[in-house]
Amino acid sequence: SDHMENICGYLMKYTNLVTGWQYRFFVLNNDAGLLEYFVNEQSRQLKPRGTLQLAGAVISPSDEDSHTFTVNAASGEQYKLRATDAKERQHWVSRLQICTQHHTEAIGKNNPPLKSRSFSLASQGSANSPGVQRRPSQNAVSFFNVGHHRLSTGKRVPIMQPDHLVDVREMMSQAEGQQKDLIRSIECLPVSGHLTSLDQDLLMLKATSMATMNCLNDCFHILQLQHASQQKGSLPAGTTINWLEPKISLANHFKNGAAQNFPAEINKPASVREEQTVAEPCQLTREPEEINPDEELEDICDDKEDDLGAVEEQRSVILHLLSQLKLGMDLTRVVLPTFILEKRSLLEMYADFMSHPDLFIAITNGTTPEERMIRFVEYYLTSFHEGRKGAIAKKPYNPIIGETFHCSWRMPKSDVATDAGSNSSAHSASEQVTLSKDLEGQKELDYYTVKFVAEQVSHHPPVSGFYAECVERKMCVNAHVWTKSKFLGMSIGVTMVGEGVLSLLEHGEEYTFSLPCAYARSILTVPWVELGGKVNINCLKTGYSASINFHTKPFYGGKLHRVTGEVKQNTTNTVVCRVQGEWNSVLEFTYSNGETKYVDLTKLSVTRKRVRPLEKQGPFESRRLWQHVTESLRDGDIDKATEHKRALEEQQRNEERLRAETETPWCTKYFLKEGDGWVYHKPLWKTVSAVQSQQTDTN
C-alpha cells in the first residue's frame, strides 16, 4: 500500500510522574511491524531504547487534547505520546493504525483453519473433567504458563499447527470445568462465619474468572472466523457473527451466582401489577395540564447519595457488567443494575439545576448587556453543584416516554439582587396588571414564582425537554437534551447533546447555551463525577459571548473539578470578565475594572422546590411513576426495586411495540418539535406578545 511508509520524527513521550514528558525520536518500521524510539536522531544507529510490537495493538487518540494519543500493545505495554499539533497527531495515528491492521491480519492468515468449528465451551467442562482432582491453583498455573513460557524466550513464536490448537482447546475445556467448579465452591460457602460466599476477594475472583473465560472464548471464535475467511476468501454477505457461548443477560444478572428468574405475573406484588396497567395509551389524555402553584408544597425529600453499601456488596455484578462491555459502546440500550441508581428521575435532576432561583431572576436586573451576560455566567456555573446529590456518582432513572415533572420555587423579592433603575416597575403598570391577572390570577405578591416543567419527548434517542419561567420578571428558559452515554473502560462518559435558550423579554435578548459532558470515574472503587468539555453562551443582539472550559483531571497532577472561562464583547474582542475555580467549590470572577468577586458554592443558600403531593400527581409524573422503585431503594430492598423497575420498562416496551404495529405516532403533551429541537407549547414570549397586541388594540 502507498500508505505503508516508514516514518520517523520527534514525539513527546510520557515517562513517569517524576520525569514527565520527554522528547524522543520515533521510527515506524512497517516491514517488521514495530514502533521503536531512540534518545535522539543521532543515536538511531544504536539499539532502540524501546520497541513495541504493533500486531494486535490499539491506537487511541486522547480526549484530553488534540495532540496526545496512546499506543496500547497486545503485551499490555503502553506508550503515551504527544505530537506538536493536531495535524501531526493525525498523521502518526493513521500510519500506525494502517501498520497495526496489516500485521494483525497477517497473523490470522498465517494460522491454518481448525479441523472443526463446532466447538463450544458451553458443552465442555464438568466435575469429571480431566485434571479436576488436582489443586485448582496448580491447574491455573500450568494452564497460563503455556503461553508465558513461550513468550519469555524472546524468540519468534512459531505458527501453531492444527494439533497445537487442539491442545489449546483441550486446555480451555479443563479451565472451563475448573472455573465452574470454582464458582460452585464459592457459592456453597455459608453466608456467615470466617469465610463466606460474600467475601470481597472471592467475589472479585468469581467475577474476573468469568470475564477471563468469556475473553478466551471470544478470541477462539475470532481465530475460527479468520481461518474460515482464509479458506472461503471472505465471509458471505449477511453473515451474523455470534458468541460461541451465550452471554448472561445483563438485565437478569442482579444477584451473585446465576441469573435471577422473576416470578410469574400472579406472584408479583400488587403494586407492580398496578404499574403495568396504569393506562393504555389510548386512555391517556395528552392535553396539557395547567399546574396551580398553590397546590404545590415545599419539598421535604432529601435523598443524598452518599451510601456506598450497595455498590460494595454488588461489586461482582459490576465486574460482570464490565466484562460484557467494549470500549466506546453506546450504553443507551444497556440495562444497568438497579443498585447504582439514585432516587430520582433525570427530569427531576434537571429541575435541581434551578435551585438558586434568586441568581436566575437577578439576571434580568442587570443594567447593561455586559452585566446581564456576566450574571448569566454566574448563575450557569453555580447550577451544577446542587444538581448533583452527594459526592457519589449514581445514575438517575431513565425517564419513560411521556413522563413529566412539575415543580416551582418561591423567592422573596427582597432576596433578589437588583440595581438602581432596573426593577419590576420598568414595564408599565397596565402591562403588569394584565400579566398578573391573565397569567397568575393573583394580586401583587411579595415573592417571585419560577415554574418548571419537563417531559420525556422521545425514547430512542432519549430526549428530554424542559422549560422554566418567571412571569413577573418576563424571563424564561427552554431547552432540549439528548443524553448519549459511552463506556470508556473504568469510567462512563455522558454527552449532553442539545441546546438551551434563555429569553429576557424585557430586554429583547436571547442567550443560547450548551451543556458540558459528564463522566463517572472510578466505577470499581468509589465512583465520582466530573464535568468536562467546552461550552459557549452567546447573545446575538448584544454581541456578548462567554466561553467556559470544564477541565477533566489531567493524566498526572492537577486539580479536580476545575473550570475557567471568559466573557467578551465580540465586536471589539474585549474580555470584560474572567472566571476560574472549581464548579463545586469556590469561583473567582475578575472584572475589567480590576475588581474581584468570590462565590463559595458550598455556602450559597438553596431554595427548596415546591412539588404537588403524590396523591395529586398524574400517573406519569416522575415521583408517582417511580414511587415504588424509590421506596424500595430507601428501604435497601434492591430485588424489589428491580422488579418495579422491570415492570415499568416492560410496560414502555409493550406500548412502543403496539404503536409500531398500529403505526400510531407518539403525541407529546407539553413540547412541540421545531426543526431539530423541542419547544414548550405555551412559552412566555408568545403570551407576552399576545398581551402587548391586546394593549395595542385597546389603545
TrEMBL record:
Its main location: Golgi. It comes from the Eukaryota. InterPro entries: OSBP_sf, Oxysterol-bd, Oxysterol-bd_CS, PH-like_dom_sf, PH_domain. It holds the Pfam family PH. GO terms for molecular function: sterol binding. Keywords: Acetylation, Endosome, Golgi apparatus, Lipid transport, Lipid-binding, Membrane, Phosphoprotein, Transport. It catalyses: a 1,2-diacyl-sn-glycero-3-phospho-(1D-myo-inositol 4-phosphate)(out) + a 1,2-diacyl-sn-glycero-3-phospho-L-serine(in) = a 1,2-diacyl-sn-glycero-3-phospho-(1D-myo-inositol 4-phosphate)(in) + a 1,2-diacyl-sn-glycero-3-phospho-L-serine(out). Residues 104-136, 416-435 are annotated as: Disordered. One of its GO terms (cellular component) is cytosol. It is found in: Golgi apparatus, trans-Golgi network membrane; Late endosome membrane. One of its GO terms (biological process) is lipid transport. Residues 117-136, 420-435 have a biased composition (Polar residues). Residues 4-101 form the PH domain. Plays a role in regulating ADIPOQ and FABP4 levels in differentiating adipocytes and is also involved in regulation of adipocyte triglyceride storage. Weakly binds 25-hydroxycholesterol. Interacts with OSBPL9 to function as lipid transfer proteins. Heterodimer with OSBPL9. Belongs to the OSBP family. This is Oxysterol-binding protein.
